[in-house]
Amino acid sequence: MCGTCGCSDDDNAVILTDPEGGEATLLRRGSLLGAAPLHGIAHDHSHDHSYDHSHDHSHSHDLVAPHDHSRDHTTHTAHVHQDDDSLHVHGTGNKVIDLEIAVMDKNNRLADSNREWFEGRRVLALNLVSSPGAGKTTLLERTIQMLGSTLPISVIEGDQMTSNDARRIKAAGARALQINTGAGCHLEADMVAKAVAQLDPQAGSILMIENVGNLVCPAMFDLGERMKVAIISTTEGEDKPLKYPHMFRAAEIILINKMDLASFVEFDEKTCMANIQKINPKARIFAVSAKSGMGMENWIEFLRQESDALGTRRVLARH
What's the rounded Cα separation, in Å, for the pair 121 and 250? Predict the structure, then answer.
């Protein structure tokens, strides 16, 4: 899927527009590196290529198109290596294409476009990130039940496979779309843009983006959200923020979930909070149990305040 995190996506990425009926929209076919190492970076042809491209036959430069030529091209020999900072591909004349810069630049431009759209419609977009099993979906279900009657919520669900979470969200009372990333380990701005075009969140509403369960790559990919919300659970231990500092530094809000299990797993809340503050002193922390409802009112009040700050309720009042 990207040269930045090293994940590969040999499967298609799709939006499940109808999780019950199985209707799907193709987002992306194959992998970025697997499809075409030297030609796979999407571009609009408004600039020159930075590598030698001297052969005179025509072929597609599309991101998803296979790069399958009938003749052998020594000019397209490529060697891939990774250093501490980024992934590089060496092509003709030993010129280097920095895939990290290309991928991230494209993603960031699309994220900025998403952000402008959200701000224009006063949509509070939040990017929920966590390890698998931390309780993101349960948190969303409880949030919808507590807030959905007064403030509309829609959800983009990100998983590698299945539409289970989207079904749960719809059953809780919110509109939802499922993105299946195949082997991809995170959502990207183009995926969110296409999902938003189909979901069309109401002006003045909240959009929750439940990212793929992973505390590494989603830290690097801006989706256009107002802020990242990191969720950890008491069953994961107090040192999670120290193990994944980039994510907890990137998140403005951190929820410690499954507090109802804290005593059973000997979880030390004060130690966990101290570890969070060591990594991110500005983070706002909520200790909750999405299952029992403990502490959830503080989270709900935060969402109301953020919505008011965006003027969402004023927009809703006009509609």
Answer: 25
Interatomic CA distance for residues 150 and 84, integer angstroms: 48
Tokens 């402008």 sit on residue: 116
Q: Burial letters for 294-313: b for 16+ Cβ neighbours within 10 Å, e otherwise?
A: ebbeebbeebbebbeebebe
* Residue 122 clears pLDDT 60, i.e. is over it: yes
Orientation of helix 164-172 relative to helix 136-147, angle to 10°: 20
Kindly indicate whether the domain formed by 106-318 is annotated with CATH number 3.40.50.300: yes
Q: Are 303 and 120 in contact (CB under 8 A)?
A: no
- Identify the pLDDT of residue 98: 63
Q: Nearest CA to 251 among 288, 210, 279?
A: 279
How far is the C-alpha of 114 from the C-alpha of 125, rounded, in Å? 10
Q: Where are the domains of the chain?
A: 106-318
Mean pLDDT, all residues of the chain: 78
pLDDT for 104 beyond 70: yes
The residues that bridge with 127 in the sheet, in sequence order, are 209, 228
What six digits make up the tokens of 221?
């990919």
Q: Which of 290, 274, 291 is nearest to 240 (CA)?
A: 274
Separation of alpha carbons 218 and 87, rounded Å: 17
Question: Token pair for residue 55?
Answer: 């052969």
Dump the DSSP string for 52-119: -----S-----TTS----SS--GGG--EEEE-SS-EEEE-GGG-EEEHHHHHHHHHHHHHHHHHHHHH
The average pLDDT across 174-197 equals: 89
